[in-house]
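Practice problem: predict the structure.
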Amino acid sequence: MSLSDRLPIVTGLAGVSATENSRARFWGQILEWPMMLLAIWIIIEWYLQANDELSGDALLITDWLIWLFFIVETLLLTALVNNKTYYLRNNWVNLIIILFGCPLIWWFSPLAGALRTLRLLVMFSLLLQISGTARRLLSRHNLGNTLFIGFIVIVMAGFIIAGLDPAIETPWDGVWWAWVTVTTVGYGDIVPTSTIGRLFASFLILLGMALFSLLTAGFSAFFVSQDEKDQVRRDLEILNKLNDLEMKMERLERHMTVLAEEVSVKNNGRSDGAEGPDPQETPDV
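Answer:
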């Protein structure tokens, strides 16, 4: 088993096993999409909360929705999988979030300050789970999938760097910085100054190089596929013309056969008429 396969199991975020039944795997993949939206929202919420731009009621509603989503996901997938013990054992982080993530525990107790740490755990679990979706989409070498994943990465990185580095004042500046960083352009108009910001920038540069290579491969595959489609279309046109020609040849051959039979019948009739009856001998008088 490779490191990329072991990491989700060790971290308790294995998801639905590839050996499970098709129904469980189907719903496991379907639920990855709302997970992606939740991960994006948690990053945005984290930034808004750090800048006191989000009310306490909105935070409480968000925490309830996230907690209920984890409950629904865990109950649904546990009911669908065949090996329930294996699924729960390899997704133990979900159980921790369900047991200790109830907003009633954190919002109305002296431990409310630890809620931010729990949000980071939730965000990490969501990001690791949706990374499987991202790898699966990128492995198809589809241009649209690569652009979509790149867009998600840039938006999330923009909000993260805006919350980490004081030199980047707004998330929109962060998105612009993430865009020029991922594309390896690096204008230098916006630069992180903190240590954590520079570390995050180093990680994003490596990620940008990988995405850029995948994007280049996606463009190449797109144009190659267009050429292949054009060639296939031309081949089909030639094949259709050959089929039409073959059908015409068959009809012509049948017509020639019918004409040959008619000519043969007419020739036989003329031959019989030319021979006439046999002459009879005249009797002696």
